[in-house]
Write a structure and sequence with these properties.
35 strands, ten-stranded mixed beta sheet, alpha/beta
């Protein structure tokens, strides 16, 4: 008897059907048959299917339907009727099975007695050369369940094709696919999960779901522009609800409703901008009716923005729903885009000013905890719109606006802009024209004139689609604004491709699934129409599609090879590192380019004041905002960055230049570091001790590039230096960033900017970063004491500045802005220390610096024992701290009330003598004279 029957359904897919069938016949488990069900195809599919059956009649059979079913359910049921195997699987003609799929699934079924065995499906994107696991979290490890209630997350994987079913189980339960409805998988999988007496999960790859995103004939999953697609999905969900009701699965229904908000609804809302008004109206009507069936608890359990989308849809608010979807990143590399202006009411931030008259509206639309209001403007990624577009002769006039969230862009800020036509298939290719920008009605208004025949010159063929982006300069910030459009546009303008008019002669406006304003290259002339039609016909064939996909992939590969880091490092080490050194060039970097701050900043400023003739280059990681305008700026990781490193006479940084970059003998590397050590460092740290020998060797190789290393005490020399394995010359100068603390710097400008003028005591809270379960710094830092309690207890006499570690962010509700301020966007902590009356920290090296000011500090360390146990420490904090060490918020507040008594002056002096003996206020001057202006500069 046959072990496995694999039912392959096919419609008009003659080219790919053989590949699918071969993936079954080539299984490492040989006792497998293929049942091909041809759903009344009109191309050569029937002949191909018969040919496959004739070539292997013992293992392949073809069934031909006389009438097309319009879906996948009926052909699969026909296949079930024809199947002879003990187990059944389903395969679509455009997908494939992993070679060991049947072996792994059958072996597990026999070992466990499971009636349903499910393995991992991988989505394969040939156009992109990418692969992604489908609900990978469910398939991390092998597991066996007697009921789906033991692992409700299984219900998220609703595919029927990555599963093996016992035939007698399907017959016992009367399980067949619903017919004449799309998304039959969802209902079938739910019934199978609930009906199976034993379910097994394996972590192996079993199914390749191949997605051709640019295919002319889209899969059902990708046909979301058809309203029937959505109505069928809702009908399937209603039937699933009925299944849950029969099985007493109210808890499972709640999980399904949460998934509907988190996943299903989002899929459709994301594409609403590209639909016409009639579709939107019908969609909202269908969706609003279905939303009434959801468990009200689903809105509380769904993600914040997905809950907002559901709420807006339920209220028929198209604009509110799509703006919330804009802020949800798409894919791994996607970024949130803020297209809603946000509003503040009673110290809370809301997504919309509407619907705040109801309790549900205020609860669901409250986005204070997302912290959008706390982000720097460039991190918010504001979005914009095209509101007007018209052709003027052979030119194009466009206008629109950009959201101004919470009026962050003030009327006195200098604005300028460029409108960019960007190649949607190739990052970095664009044509730019000047745009005018003004303030209007709470938004930023822009307009631009474009002569497409002159200003926009595509190649043709390879760059058929162009999106719009506004490059907006707001003061020192440069923002890149994606431009969306809410209504379809029928318009085209002449263009002259570089590959002649055979590649097209007009740019035609359209709205892609993303909702952005876009243009595609089309041909109005006879020659162009004939050429493009021939190309489309050719790429519609299997051979043509493979050729075209291969061409695009090769071109993309060449571009990615040129831009990837490994290429840059290879060119750097083999080519750039052979170029002549520029003797007067210095590359500065602070915290991996994240800031203009710390010791490198103060060395640079002392060098500038010295009048020495040097070319200074600063690297920045994301934005040049805040970096010195009189220096040359290069983006970290770019080609100019590596060229600068290769030719520089000096490297100055406080953390580490790229580890693979070989330092040339003629280059002097001055490593300033960024703090004295409390926690164990380098080879002393537990994580380094647990690392491999090769990892430790890489660390040592990176450190061995240092020629000079700044220290501020012998404690550094005995702990930090040895822990890192530093063999460089030690410069016992102290830290340049601390010169201002010793000599008395001026922080009046920052005090005014932060509005610290009412006489209250200024307290700075500056903790170190915390690591998450993955060992990486936590992105979101949660303040370990209640900020509202601080405001209530101390707000009349104290003001709190919260500065998280630069690797983290923190959220401060606007309701506390009078007492608590988020100062994460202040690059330089030294200026904050100067204006602070007291410091609260935990294990941060800022304690060593602040002690130089001889002002009170409190060590708030509720997790001291756990931190020392997991990270290790060079000294006992409780015995050596320059202030009280407290673990409870009440103790912290009490210590801050008692600042005047200042009982720790003696401990601070002893702390400075031990940990800051070389900080004499001359560090920056010593470094500049020693390396750049003195006789030692050879």
């Amino acid at each position: 008897m046959t072990d496995v029957s694999v039912i392959v359904i096919v419609y008009n897919d003659a080219d790919r059907l053989p590949h699918a069938v071969r993936s079954v016949l080539g299984q490492s488990h040989r006792n497998v048959e293929v049942v091909i069900v041809n759903d009344a195809s009109t191309d050569a599919t029937a002949q191909v299917a018969d040919g496959l059956a004739a070539a292997d009649p013992d293992r392949v059979r073809a069934v031909h339907r006389a009438e097309n079913s319009g879906g996948c359910g009926q052909p699969r049921n026909d296949g079930i009727a024809e199947a002879r195997g003990t187990y059944l699987m389903f395969l679509d003609s455009d997908d494939t099975l992993d070679r060991h799929a049947c072996r792994n699934l059958v072996t597990t079924a026999e070992e466990t007695g499971a009636e349903l065995v499910s393995g991992c499906c991988w989505r394969v994107f040939p156009d992109k050369g990418e692969e992604r696991a489908w609900y990978r979290g469910v398939y991390r490890e092998r597991a066996v369940y007697s009921s789906v209630r033991e692992r409700p997350e299984l219900l998220y994987d609703t595919l029927s094709t990555n599963k093996l079913y016992r035939r007698d189980f399907l017959d016992r339960e009367g399980l067949r696919f619903v017919e004449r409805l799309h998304y039959e998988d969802l209902l079938f999988s739910t019934q199978a999960y609930l009906g199976a007496r034993m379910i097994a999960i394996i972590p192996h790859r079993v199914y390749n779901w191949i997605i051709i995103e640019n295919a002319e004939t889209l899969s059902i999953t990708n046909q979301r522009s058809e309203l029937r697609n959505f109505s069928d999905r809702l009908e399937i969900f209603r039937r699933i609800d009925a299944v849950y009701a029969r099985h007493g699965g109210e808890d499972l229904k709640l999980s399904k409703d949460v998934k509907f908000l988190n996943h299903d609804l989002l899929l459709y809302v994301r594409g609403l901008r590209s639909r016409d008004a009639e579709y939107r109206e019908a969609f909202l009507e269908l969706a609003r009716e279905y939303m009434t069936t959801l468990d009200p608890r689903a809105f509380a359990e769904a993600h914040e923005l997905q809950a907002i989308i559901g709420f807006m849809v339920a209220n028929g608010d198209f604009e509110g729903a799509v703006s919330a979807s804009d802020y949800i990143p798409k894919g791994r590399s996607g970024k949130p885009r803020l297209t809603a202006p946000l509003v503040e009411r009673d110290g809370r931030i809301y997504w919309s000013a509407d619907y705040l008259d109801t309790e549900d509206g205020r609860r669901i639309l409250d986005v204070t905890d997302l912290g959008i209001h706390s982000l720097p403007l460039k991190s918010i990624n504001p979005g914009g719109r095209v509101t007007e577009i018209e052709r003027r002769g052979r030119a194009l006039w466009l206008a629109g606006d950009v959201v101004n969230p919470l009026h962050r862009i003030g009327p006195d800020v200098k604005l300028s802009a460029q409108l960019e036509f960007r190649d949607r298939g190739r990052a970095g290719r664009f044509f730019a024209v000047p745009a005018t920008v003004t303030h209007a009605d709470g938004r930023i208004r822009w307009s631009a004139d474009v002569e497409t025949g002159r200003d926009v010159r595509p190649l043709g063929f390879l760059d058929q689609s162009w999106g719009l982006r506004l490059r907006l300069n707001v003061g020192d910030d440069e923002l890149f604004i994606r431009l969306f459009v809410n209504e379809a546009v029928e318009l085209s303008v002449p263009v002259r491709p570089r590959l002649t008019r055979l590649a097209g002669d007009h740019l035609e406006a359209y709205v892609p699934e993303s909702g952005e304003m876009a243009f595609r290259l089309v041909a109005h002339g006879r020659a162009g129409r004939a050429t493009l039609a021939t190309l489309r016909r050719f790429t519609a064939t299997g051979r043509g599609r493979r050729w075209w996909t291969g061409l695009l992939r090769s071109e993309k590969t060449l571009r990615s090879v040129f831009t990837r880091r490994s290429t840059k490092m290879a060119v750097y080490n083999k080519v750039l590192a052979r170029l002549p050194i520029r003797r007067n060039t210095i590359v500065f970097e602070s915290h991996l380019g994240m800031q203009y701050s710390d010791n490198p900043k103060y060395i640079y400023e002392a060098l500038r004041e010295s009048g020495a003739k040097y070319t200074a280059i600063w690297s920045y990681a994301t934005s040049p905002s805040g970096f010195p305008k009189d220096a040359k700026l290069v983006k970290r990781g770019s080609w100019p960055y590596y060229l600068a490193l290769a030719r520089a006479r000096y490297w100055v940084d406080n953390q580490g230049f790229p580890s693979e970059a070989v330092k040339r003998p003629q280059t002097t590397y001055i490593q300033t570091w960024h703090g004295s050590a409390f926690k164990l460092m380098g080879v002393d740290a537990p994580e380094t001790k647990r690392s491999t020998r090769a990892q430790r060797a890489r660390l040592q190789k990176m450190v061995d590039r240092f020629d000079h290393f700044l220290v501020r005490s012998e404690h550094d020399a005995q702990t930090l230096v040895k822990g890192l394995g530093v063999r460089a010359e030690l410069i016992r100068s102290g830290y340049p960033r601390n010169d201002a603390l010793v000599n008395g710097g001026d922080a009046a400008a920052l005090r005014k900017k932060l509005r610290l003028t009412d006489g209250r005591k200024v307290v700075l809270y500056a903790p170190t970063f915390r690591t998450g379960p993955n060992g990486k710094p936590e992105k979101r830092f949660e303040v370990p004491f209640d900020l509202e309690d601080f405001a209530r207890e101390l707000g009349e006499t104290h003001i709190l500045l919260v500065r998280p570690h630069y690797l983290s962010t923190v959220v401060v509700p606007p309701s506390l802005s009078g007492t608590v301020r988020n100062v994460a966007d202040v690059h330089d902590v030294t200026s904050l220390l100067l204006l602070t009356d007291a410091l609260v920290t935990d294990y941060s090296s800022v304690m060593f610096d602040y002690a130089l000011l001889d002002r009170p500090m409190v060590m708030f360390a509720p997790d001291l024992d756990e931190y020392v146990r997991s990270r290790g420490a060079y000294f006992d904090l409780a015995e050596n701290a320059p202030g009280p060490v407290v673990a409870e918020p009440e103790q912290l507040f009490a210590a801050l009330r008692d600042l005047e008594r200042d009982a720790y002056a003696k401990q601070r002096r002893e702390f400075v003598e031990r940990f800051g003996e070389y900080d004499q206020g001359t560090a920056a001057k010593q470094v500049v004279e020693h390396f750049f202006t003195g006789n030692s500069n050879a």
